[in-house]
Amino acid sequence: MAQLNWKSYQKEIPDDHFFYVRSCIRQTFFPGAETALLYVLREVLKKDVFEDKRHTTCTGIGFHSDVIPLETIMTVVARQLALMTEAGYKNLLVSCVTSFGIYLEILEMWKHFPEKLAQTREALWKATRREFEVPALLTHSSDAIFHFKEQILNKSQISLVNAESGQALKGVEHVGCHYAKIFPQDGIGGAEFPRVLSGLIEGWGGELIDYPERRHCCGFGFRHYLVRANRSYSISNSKIKFESMAPFEPEFILTNCPGCNMFLDRWQYTLSEMEGKTYDSRGLGIPVLSSEEMAGLMVGMDPWKLGLQMHQIAVEPLLDKMGVNYAPKAKYHLASSAVPLPQKPSVLLV
Amino acid sequence: MATISSRLKADIRFQDGLKACMNCGVCTAICPAAAYFDYDPREICQDVQSGDESILIGLLKGEQIWMCGQCLSCKTRCPRDNTPGYIIQVLRKISQEMGYFVHSRLGRQQLLLKRAIGHSILETGYCVHPKLIRPETHREQGPVWEWVMDNAKEVYEKCGSLYYEEGLGGMRKIDSDTLDEMHAIFQETGAFNLFDKIEQASEAKAAEMGLSFSDDDDNEYLREIQL
Amino acid sequence: MTKQYFGFSVLEQRSVNLDSEMPAELESLYQKEPSLRACIACGNCAAVCSAGHFAEMQFYRLNVMARRGLLHEMVGKAAACMLCGRCQMSCPRGVNIRHAVLMMSQL
Amino acid sequence: MTKQKVAIIGAGPAGLQSAVSLAELGYEVDLYEKKSRPGGHLAEWHVLFPDMQPAGELLDSLMQKVLAHPQIRLETGVNISGLEQAGKSWQLIQSDSVRGEADAVVLASGFKLFEASKKEEYGHGIYPAVISSAELETIFIREKEWPFEKTNKSPKIGLVHCVGSRDAKCGNLYCSKACCITAVKQAIELKKTFPASEVYCFYMDMRMFGLGYEELYHKAQLDYKVQFIRGRLSEASPSGAGRIQVKAEDTLMGRPLKLTLDMLVLMVGMTASVSPEVKENTVELKEYANKGEFVKIPGAVIGAAQWLKPGLFVAGACKGPATLPEVLNDARATALDLRNYLSGVL
After folding, report:
1. Which ipTM value was assigned to this complex?
2. Could you list the residue range(s) of the whole structural domain that residue B115 is in?
3. Which residues of D touch C14 (CB under 8 A)?
């Protein structure tokens, strides 16, 4: 896929000194992805990444479900920024794409409506006696991985190439909607042909596949997943994506959004139970990895410390192709006495 | 009393979200909600642009404004720099402020969201956390999730998570001073006002529907709106 | 395989899919009333429609439904027409609407 | 007394017609063209709306008049980058040196086609099956191949109106005027070339303002069975085997619409070609770079002279989107204004 315009959407990504804020969804479903990000940045690349244990959710999921007012989320965001200011940092590193969108939107609103910034300063002061500066640079965790992709590749023994056949592995991307659709200039490559993941796939030796519904939402929809009766919307939109990518036979899906990662993984299972169908030829489904997880594998992290056993779709076929060195039997092994293995789905092979 | 039009215009998201719609449909073309529901963001823009109070009340009481999934794909494409997704945010806000949300089936679900997400933020400092995703109400999460939950502490710790323990890291227990600050922010910025409005309108609706209502999860109204 | 129930379902898309095969009757409709093709969806027909006061009847939309291959939907809606012919007098493109509706409802 | 001299910048339809009209009025004319050949966009067009007259015929007839007239001197490959006023006369600057002098100047630099790849969501330049309306003309004049298999005699083709026009995202809020009728013309040509094809036009409003346009639209519907879908195209994406999936809303149905095509034609609008920067005694002719405005003539509506400043006239589509007849008439009118100026009436 030739990409014409992405070079005109370059954003500045700092080389060092990040203030890190976590993602609720990632901490819930893919804790290893955040562990991987910090390991890659701190241990492998020797970067300074600071975390304050007093930071909280940005309340973005509540905001987009309409139970958190705009003024509230602005002030919660301001509190995070106050912690950053207190710690002496200027570069915010955000793990979650919903949060990333929230920070971008709020900073933009403050720019256009300075009275809102003033109100927020006042509200934060009244509520917490804290003060804050707006960040110099806003970086999503996938931006950081994109920024350091060559260094990561240099430290890596493996790549996105079939270790046996030497063929590039075929990957599709799914970029979270709030990464660049709200503010194309703030995403690497813009909204239509984002480079943040396609650059990783190609930069690490894989073959990037474009598919018709690449830009379609995974279907999270906030209130649509959170209320059980509404989940039809969520699964049906993911299905649009699977049906659209399946004919191209991708070997993996790369994501940069914790929510998308979870939905694209889980809905393959649910669809297989509801409709008896999987989206690969062998009945295994298509593994879905985040950029952080992929970076973790690249630098040699153990897949089970990376939390890949928490995915419903089996990742082993991909690990085998990539030539990752891992212990298959250790997947569900825990230190305590032997625990039963997860039950097998009725359709999906694991 | 302020008109709905003036309430809309007072919100900066509306000022930014609706400049002038020319009815082209690029938003609807790629809208995940329009793909499945009788929902059309272009028509919402036209309705709102009309400024007609009876049309606006219809929107606030209706199902449609609750169908948007807030992906904001519409923002990228609009040739007039409108954002239907922002207009929806403001319509939903006003629908809750004016108590109209209980008129629609989807609107009534706000009580569930307030109690799940709103309370979770205040109690834990997270919008969502593992204990909210109970396998019995989240069967779509699959058998691996069940296994994770059965062995949660060990699985999370293996992946470098604190799993509700105090400290510095993922899924840590957030300290009470921080939660107090969150409370103070909610108080200062009107979140509790919104919570109260959602509860009060829901309780009145429950009475109208002849259903029991209570603070805990064990009441007929809550069960009804889950369907 | 026993299909599991999760409390929600996979929905049918509402999108018009022009890749799907067009019904064979469609061509015969246009052969019977070629002026249908001249419609520019100006809405004059709907504005003056007698049936439109009581039913969801907008002739130009029937025509769009036909073109999108949604014949079932079209036939159902066409039944509301009272064949009064006011629309035909107002059509700027000279579509023979009365005859067209008649042909539509007979599909 | 030597004849008074007029310099014309740009030898497209506006420049050629200005040259002919001015020479017929008795002036010496220096006609400068930046490219290696005259004719502008007309030289790359197949047939003209609404009468399907070959574009080459019109260009040939203009060129014959230009070449036959002893008072017109045509120079190609000359890029005039600025003007300097010296007393009542004008010096034409080509890369810092004086290329010529004249008593009056006509700026007829025309328009640039909107660069289709800037409308990223349509994938022009990325997906070979997505081409611009100008590229379709070069296919019609057989300088380029069809982007689908030769054996495909029933291609599905979409034409998208308003590409780069009426679009705040591209910075162009204006309507480019000629694209709707061009789409109708091209749709008919496509149906003539491939009678078994399916041709869809995605429009927001059909702006059929010119004489014969509405009739052509009517004909496209009735005789050529071109389908018109009221909805702006939202995106194009690759759907395998070189085909393109497009999404729009069928706004008359109030539903999203999907369609897979063998070729997608983007009706690219007009943008400014030069943005003159006028100072006291100099005018810099800046190349248009994505953002910029058409040449603005103060008070044009109330019939004031079509000039930027006394002696510097502006003709044709560099003032804004225009159709060929409008451009030709404008060139004639500018010639009259110019004569009034040089004869001291204006």
Report:
1. 0.94
2. 109-125+176-227
3. 255-256
